[in-house]
Every structure is written in structure tokens, then in C-alpha cells.
Amino acid sequence: MQSGTQARKYRLQGAGLDLALPYLMLAPGLMIVLGVLVYPLLDGLKASTRTYRYGSPISDVGLQNYVHLWSDAQFLNSLWVTVKFVALSVSIEAVLGFALALFCLREFRGIRLLRTVLIIPMVITPVVVAIVFRLIYASDAGMLTALSEAMGGGAMQILGNPLNAFIGLVVLDVWEWTPLMFLILLAGLQSLPQEPFEAARVDGAGAWRVFADLTFPMMRPVLAVAIVLRTIDAFGTFDQVFVLTRGGPGEATRLVSIYGYDTAFKFQQTGYAAALFVTIGLVVLALAFSAIRLLRRIDAS
Amino acid sequence: MSSVLYKSVVKNFGALNVLRSLDLAVPDHKFLALLGPSGCGKTTALRILAGLDMPSAGKVFIGERDVTRLQPRDRDIAMVFQSYALYPQMTVAENISYPLWIRGTPDIERKVKIGEVAAVLEIGHLLDRRPRQLSGGQRQRVALARAIVRDPAAFLMDEPLSNLDARLRLTMRGEIKRLCQRLGATTIYVTHDQVEALTMADLVAVMHGGELQQMAPPIDIYDRPANRFVATFVGNPPMNILPVTLADNGVRAGGKIVPLERTRFFACRLAEIVEIGLRPEDCSVAQHDAPDVLPGEIYVVEPMGNETLVNVRLDGGNVSVRAGRDFRGAVGENIGVAFDAANACFFNSVGITAVHRVNSNGREK
Ligand SMILES: Nc1ncnc2c1ncn2[C@@H]1O[C@H](COP(=O)(O)OP(=O)(O)OP(=O)(O)O)[C@@H](O)[C@H]1O
Ligand SMILES: [Mg+2]
């Protein structure tokens, strides 16, 4: 009798540990997530409903910050610049990355080296990349100016000219992030089954038809994921612009991230900046969700 | 003209020699079954003909054309892959009609064709599904449909029935044979199922270890195997092989002297034969002490319904004998094996058939 109770007790204790173990193991990670992600997020949300003076909140204004955003010409302009920047960079990166991935799928001598070299830009610190590009673009001693002068032209105005500065920024982003696209798409291509491609060749499809009828449809999910990832990431681009142009000349390269930074730290409008970033976060979230929804619909049909 | 010719085709994968000098000629409009055990290079041979692999040496001809260096799509062939190779993101109907679509066949014509082949292969109800929603056997039939929807110079089929159930396999066997005869295209049909090979083909080519062992009409493959491998690979249960030594006017096998006809005896002596081959159906059970039978004891009895397979242990090895359905015997019982020496063939020391059987109907070739 006694030993029976004893056994039940042990069993229960054992079961208790079994039940608790997953939570115990999750706890440290969960604490960190709560501490560095959830708390700042909630704090940011709170901040976005207040106005600040000299760094401390002075009053609750409800949703007024959010409403104000949509009549702020500078914000709307920065949003427009960002959308242009993201759309242009990401689409160029996708096309270029796909082309490179298709090219690097073939086996030939030196292919491993090529694949390695191609992903180097991605692993360099963004600030360093921006500094290097500043050196390239600089109108007095930059590489482009040197090249142009060697060929008999004058100094190249890149960062001083609104259109050129914007293009220069897109070129930088493409240079740095095409490798990520390339890497994701190459992995996707390599995981496709081989036989359908052989069957298509026997069935009479040429290189273009194989791409259009097989490769592209089979790669669509991977491509979509890569684009969504890059889009979310590109919306947050900050360091490169900050180092390269600080948003100038004028507002030509002022992305929302730069504008938000300026409002927060230059103009000390902490609450307004918080509302701005929350809004951008929601926009990106909505974008990502609709992209995934679209993807699922394509997959199901 | 769509005959197929392999001319001294060699294929190496690195150091691995998969095909050693394959010479194979398939006449126009013939149905050739490529038969061999797993890993003998059947798929490799087919892929070389399709243009998916380059031979390491040698040439391939379709009709009069040397196609060795041509792209697959310029060879005018249709292929059924061992692994189906369906297009995953297309529906069954799109899969089937893809070869036609690529060639710009008008919509109406395509619809009609899809309907036709779908009916033949009993997949009409699956046309709107995608490959991943199909069973293995259904996928295989879709792959088959995609190949036969067109009218190519040659069909290449890599074990197209291996995943079907027994009943479907039987019907499909007949359907494919009819279809190939109607379309009149040269067909190379890879299989490791000898029944398929023997029942469907005009010609059977037996491969082993990357080498062609024999190419002949099914009946000859069965009756006049070129060597010991073909003899034992084709036929179920396989041919019985017993070691023999030469004796006066005959051979000594299973502890008895088997008398041989004079010319056959001399041929055997000349070729220095070492083994005798006997088909199970050419043997019969007898009293163990009857004259001219090989004495032994029953090892296993397997009733098959329409007949009984009796495995008998003799001096020198076991032999299978086909006996009547009413055969009764206990394991270990003494029994004799009787046969007509004219139905036996003899192998020399390297396994080549030195002396063939004299066919029972007297058609000695
Ligand atoms: N791409 C390859 N690289 C290296 N070895 C290969 C390759 N393809 C086939 N082989 C080898 O070549 C041999 C013949 O292969 P093959 O696929 O032609 O056999 P098979 O006769 O079709 O067999 P099965 O009946 O099992 O399909 C095998 O030993 C296989 O391991
Ligand atoms: Mg095979």
C-alpha cells in the first residue's frame, strides 16, 4: 500500500518535470524576446500617442500624431522616395539575382570560386560599403571623376545632383543586396527536381520555353519569399543613406527612416517619430501579408 | 525510316564503366524490349539515345541520321521516364498536351488527342488534377500518356508499368502493344520483367553488366539462349543447370549417364562442355528406380493451382520440375527426374551455349 502511493508520487513528479521542461527551456529566450522586442514595441506605441519636450513626455494627444502624418508634406515625400527606392532596387536585385543564379547553376571550372566571390558584398558592413561608395562618387577625388577625367570629361556630379544621388543610392543597394537574392534563388534552383527539365527537353522545349514553362513557375514561391524579405529589409534602409547622403541633396534621398531619425533626434519630436515608425511598420506588415496571401492564391490555383 | 542503331557506345561515369561497347540495331517499326537486372545500364542506354547523356565513345543513329551530338528536341523521340518526370505545376491535361503545345498544335486538335489517350489509359477523370495529387500508378499513366500523345520517330519507355497493380499492368501491356503497332514507331521498352519482354516485344535484347548478351525474337531468347546468363535470367522458374562430364556416347549428370545423339555428342566433346541446361517444363517426375531417370529426393513442393513445382535434390544440384496439379509427394521422398536429352542445351566452361536444344517440333536452326 505504502509503496503504491510512493510510486504514484514519483510518477506524478516525473510527469510534472516533463510538463515543465519545455517551458523551462524556453524561458531564457522568451525573457530576451520580451525584454528587447516586446517591451520597446509597447513603449514605442505608448510614445506615439504623446508629445515630448526636451526628451520627456508632456501630454497625451491620442491619435493626433498619426493624423498629422498625412498632412505632413515632408513625410509624404519621404514615403514616396522610399517606395521608389524599394521598388526600383528590389526589382533590379530580383532580376539580376535570378540571372546570376541561373548562370551559376551550371557546372564549370571555377564555379565555386565565382559563387563565393558573388556573395562577398553581402557580408561587408553596410557603413563600410557606404564609405567606399562615397569615395567612388566623390566629385573631387572620386573614382568616377578620375575615370571621367582620364577620358577627357569633367568632374562627375553624383551626390550633388538629386537624380544622380538617388540613382547612386539604388546602385549601392543593388551592389550590396543582389548577392542575397542570388543566394536564395540559387538554393531554390538547386533544390528543383531534375527530371521534369529533362522531360521538357525531350518533349521539344527550347531554353526559353523551359524557363517560362518550368523554371519560373516552379521558382515562383522562392522568388516571392525572397522579394518579400528584401522589401521588408529595404524599407528599413538607414546606415547607407546616412553615410552616403544624409537624405540630400534637398530631400532627394530622404527615406522615411532618415526623416524619422531627423524628427526624433534633430527636431526632438520623439512622439511624432514614434507614430511615423509605427505607421511604416504597419505598411510593411500589410505589404508582407498581402504578398503572402497572393502567393497562396497562386499556389492553390 | 526510324530504325535505331547503337554503334560501339561506351559510357563511363568517372571511373565507373557502365556501358562497355554496346552494339544494338533495332529495325524500323520494331518493338524492342531491353531486359536486364537492376543496375545493368538500361536507363543509361536509353538516356544516351534520348540525348540526355553523351556517350563517352561511339555513335547513335536514328534512321539514317547520326544523332550523337543532337539536342534531345531535335531527335524526334518521346520518352517515359522511370521516375515519371511530370511537370509539377501543370495539371494532368497540361502535362499530357505539353509536347503538342510546344509544337503549336491547334487547341481543338489538342483537346481531341488528350481525350483519346486519357481514355486509353483510364485517366479521363484525373485531367484537372496536379501530379502531386495522384498515386504512383496514376502518375505513371500520365507519363505514358504524355509520350504517346505525339507521333514520334521512336518511343523510349523506361519501365512504364513497374508501378501498376497486376490487373492494370496486364491491360496496359496489351494497350501499349496495340498502340505501338498502330502508331508504327520504333519502340525501345526497358523492363526487368521478363514476362513483359517476352509477351510484348518483337525483339528482346538481354543486357548484363553493361554488355549486350543476346538480341533475338522472344521465342529464340527462350529456346536458344546464347549463354548461361540469358538461360537462367529468362524463364520462370529459371532453367536448371547441372554440372556434367563427358562419358561414352553421352554425358554423366546427376549420377547417371545420359546418352546423346551422335552429332550432338561430338559437338559436346568438341566444345568441352561442362554444364547441362534443362527447362523445368522439359523435365518430368518419375519413379526413382525407373530406367533412364536421375534419382533424387524431394526438396520442396510448391502447388501453383494449375500445376505443381517440384524441387528435387539430385547428385550435383537441385532442379525444378513442372508436375501436374494432382502431384502428391512428401519432402525427403525418393523420386526420379526424367527428360529427353534432345531438349537439353550444354554450356562450355565460359558459360557460352555450345550445343542448343533440338526443338521438339523439329525446327532445328
Ligand atoms: N549519373 C550517374 N553517375 C554515376 N553513376 C551512375 C549514374 N547513372 C547511373 N549510374 C550507375 O550506372 C549503372 C547503371 O545504371 P542504370 O540507371 O542504367 O541502371 P538500370 O539498368 O536502368 O537499372 P534499374 O533497372 O534499377 O533502373 C548503375 O550501377 C548506376 O549506379
Ligand atoms: Mg533504370
UniProtKB/TrEMBL annotation, chain A:
Keywords: Cell membrane, Membrane, Transmembrane, Transmembrane helix, Transport. SUPFAM superfamilies: MetI-like (SSF161098). GO terms for biological process: transmembrane transport. The keyword Mitochondrion does not apply. Residues 79-293 form the ABC transmembrane type-1 domain. GO terms for cellular component: plasma membrane. The chain crosses the membrane at residues 21-42, 85-105, 117-137, 165-189, 210-232, 272-295. It is found in: Cell membrane. Pfam families: BPD_transp_1. It is a multi-pass membrane protein. Belongs to the binding-protein-dependent transport system permease family. This is Sugar ABC transporter permease. The lineage of its organism: Bacteria, Pseudomonadati, Pseudomonadota, Alphaproteobacteria, Hyphomicrobiales.
From TrEMBL, chain B:
GO terms for molecular function: ABC-type transporter activity; ATP binding; ATP hydrolysis activity. It is a peripheral membrane protein. GO terms for cellular component: ATP-binding cassette (ABC) transporter complex, substrate-binding subunit-containing. PROSITE patterns: ABC_TRANSPORTER_1 (PS00211), ABC_TRANSPORTER_2 (PS50893). Residues 4-234 form the ABC transporter domain. Belongs to the ABC transporter superfamily. The keyword Amino-acid biosynthesis does not apply. It is found in: Cell inner membrane. SMART domains: AAA. This is ABC transporter ATP-binding protein. Keywords: ATP-binding, Nucleotide-binding, Transport. GO terms for biological process: carbohydrate transport. Pfam families: ABC_tran, TOBE_2.
